[in-house]
């Protein structure tokens, strides 16, 4: 689909060759790499027409290949909480202040872990210590939890260009999943500005996601947002853990894969509520930094290759465009489960266990 073919001078009629050029600039395979003299004249005329095309030696990236999600309800927590006395009969857990209760902060994640984090004795999170009872208590804050690998020359990019692209990829993750304004429900304008505006399908997805969200056009696939009328972030810290890897992609592009888990402590909107729950989102977003001589793009923008999300206590079978965490007796989180129980902190397995998942599937989380 994305390969090209050579063509020199021939006796092909002008009208046939002109139609071939029209098709090639619209993404049809086997577009010629170098035009003949006649082809250059016809191509120039096509570019100057009112319905002009973008360029005949380039292609527009297709829509992302995979957009999937799986949601989990918070389960088993009430029963586990009852066992805290057995684990801690002297009430010593958390006595050191919460963040250091289970040891020093973890080192950055440089590779996929081999096991899930150990299960700490359950403790209720509080406004002062919103990560109590969670492995995230030892995770880094915000950007610091996203490991950026050392750069090397890859594809069409030099080492310095790769370094810049990796930094901009991390900027995209921050703008989409950590920006305080976006978390309060605002439109992620900074993140959208980093997406190639010429990419097919992305404009439609974004228009639908922030116009009329659906299961297919769900902004939560890429962006973390809470409805300010129902939930508010507790404090200004989001715990993160994840990493970025890269390789040479199609047509010499730099392809970057990101796999990051975000832990958001939230309370009910409005003053006076002291109940704290956590919403957890693990996203795998793959992006491509394309060679502008081969791909129609805008400087400083990335193309989306694929994106998927696992979310816990973010809502189930709801398509509001916002995370909808369950509080109090809303233990069912509004949807039936498929019987699967998953640890949202287990990063030892690929997202969805490497087997894929039907969109909108609802399971049960073993902890939050």
Please, could you describe this protein's structure?
The chain is built from 8 helices and 12 strands. It has helices at residues 14-25, 37-48, 77-81, 84-87, 159-177, 180-183, 189-193, 202-211, and strands at residues 4-5, 31-32, 66-74, 140-141, 146-147, 231-233, 239-248, 254-268, 276-289, 303-312, 341-342, 361-365. The strands form 2 sheets. Strands 3, 4, 5, 6, 7, 8, 9, 10, 11 and 12 form a 10-stranded mixed beta sheet that branches. α1 crosses α2. The chain folds into 2 domains: 4-48, no CATH class; 66-365, no CATH class. With 368 residues, the protein is α/β, with parallel strands linked by helices. The protein is globular and about 55 Å long.
What keyword list fits this structure?
368 residues, alpha/beta, two-stranded parallel sheet, disordered N terminus
Give the overall shape. Answer: globular
Query: What is the mean predicted local confidence, pLDDT?
Result: 79
Largest sheet: 10 strands, mixed
User: How far apart are the first and last residues' alpha carbons, in Å?
Assistant: 43 Å
Q: Specify the helix fraction band.
A: 10-25%
Low-confidence stretches: 1-10, 27-34, 48-57, 76-101, 332-336, 354-358
Radius of gyration: 24 Å
The helix count comes to 8
Helix and strand composition category: alpha/beta
Count the E strands: 12
DSSP strand content: 15-25%
Query: What order do the SSEs take from the amino end to the carboxyl end, as H and E?
Result: EHEHEHHEEHHHHEEEEEEE
Oligomer: single chain
* Structural domain count: 2
